[in-house]
Structure to design on (358 residues):
């Protein structure tokens, strides 16, 4: 699927919103929901009540930043420290929003606030879906499809957080660790199958640098992975694959 | 603690800490052509950043879900990746292989 370049336009979906919902129900929503069960339990441990716990998921909507928020706040860090830590942990939203918006909109033009609202719902799972698994959605239906997908994921996140907070560790740790393993593996496989070689190389360098530098750099390793790994892939890919990526 | 103003201030500030990137992303998107080298580079950075974070979470998740050592996590990941590659990049089969291997490792108490 990831290798084939669609030669004909996909046929219109009868219900793009429902298709987005349906494509989210399954591994994407289950994986994210259970990740948020873990986050909800973490909030409970930190002494947060239900509303703030769900509020963090709903308002921040980016797990790395949410965890950073709890850690800094529980550790007595001030607002500046919270802002810096969350921004650092969720910096990936910047390149994801630039490229994700293009994948959602295509050539469609919608008002600025609308675009902002679409990107407020952006998450890694949505981004990967739109970049690698939305070939079957005709460009004019992509906004509706994306909203169906993103809203379903958002609901799964809120429900997961509330469940984790209220029921704590009702999910046995062994089950939780297996289900939480599923999401990053799923997303890594999808992006490893990116259609263009330049992006597959980016994934390979990102993995190597992100893992290799994490012990020394901590959260900065993800940023280094993106900037250094992405730039290396950008520079060497045209030399390695001079004809492969010219189709787009 | 629902009425804890310090907590809610931190939540609003934390939300802003993520919103600032979404806002900048939307702003940059309207100024960069989708067929320009700059856009391609931003895409590379996004792929590499997401990959780096996912690999780190997979291998070194931290916290109390960290029941399994990094070596065994890497082994389960390799099973999944190789399965995916050998099955003509079938994501369901790769996922089944990797998660299955990982579940086996957890069940065996390794």
């Amino acid at each position: 699927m990831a290798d084939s370049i669609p030669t004909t336009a996909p046929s219109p979906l009868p219900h793009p919103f429902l298709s987005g919902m349906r494509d989210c129900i399954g591994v994407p929503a289950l994986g994210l929901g259970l990740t948020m069960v873990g986050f909800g339990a973490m909030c409970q441990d930190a002494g947060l009540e239900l509303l703030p716990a769900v509020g963090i998921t709903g308002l921040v909507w980016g797990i790395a930043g949410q965890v950073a928020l709890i850690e800094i706040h529980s550790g007595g860090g001030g607002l500046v420290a919270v802002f810096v830590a969350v921004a650092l942990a969720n910096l990936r939203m910047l390149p994801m929003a630039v490229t994700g918006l293009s994948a959602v909109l295509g050539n469609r033009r919608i008002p600025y606030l609308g675009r902002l609202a679409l990107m407020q719902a952006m998450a890694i799972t949505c981004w990967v879906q739109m970049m690698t698994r939305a070939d079957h959605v005709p460009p004019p239906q992509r906004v509706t499809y994306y909203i169906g997908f993103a809203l379903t994921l958002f609901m799964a996140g809120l429900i997961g957080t509330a469940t984790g907070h209220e029921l704590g560790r009702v999910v046995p740790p062994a089950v939780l660790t297996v289900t939480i393993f599923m999401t990053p593996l799923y997303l890594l496989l999808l992006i490893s199958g990116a259609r263009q070689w330049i992006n597959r190389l980016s994934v390979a360098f990102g993995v190597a640098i992100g893992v290799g530098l994490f012990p020394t750099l901590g959260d900065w390793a993800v940023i280094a992975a993106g900037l250094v790994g992405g730039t290396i892939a950008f520079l060497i890919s045209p030399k390695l694959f001079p004809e492969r990526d010219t189709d787009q | 603690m629902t009425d804890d103003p310090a907590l809610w201030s931190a939540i609003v500030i934390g939300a802003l800490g993520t919103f600032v990137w979404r806002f900048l992303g939307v702003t940059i998107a309207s100024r960069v052509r989708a067929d320009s080298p700059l856009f391609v580079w931003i895409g590379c950075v996004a792929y590499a950043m997401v990959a780096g974070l996912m690999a780190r979470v997979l291998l070194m998740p931290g916290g109390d879900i960290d029941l399994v050592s990094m070596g065994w996590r890497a082994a389960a990941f390799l099973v999944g990746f190789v399965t995916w590659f050998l099955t003509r990049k079938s994501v369901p089969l790769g996922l089944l292989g990797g998660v299955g291997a990982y579940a086996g490792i957890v069940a065996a108490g390794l």
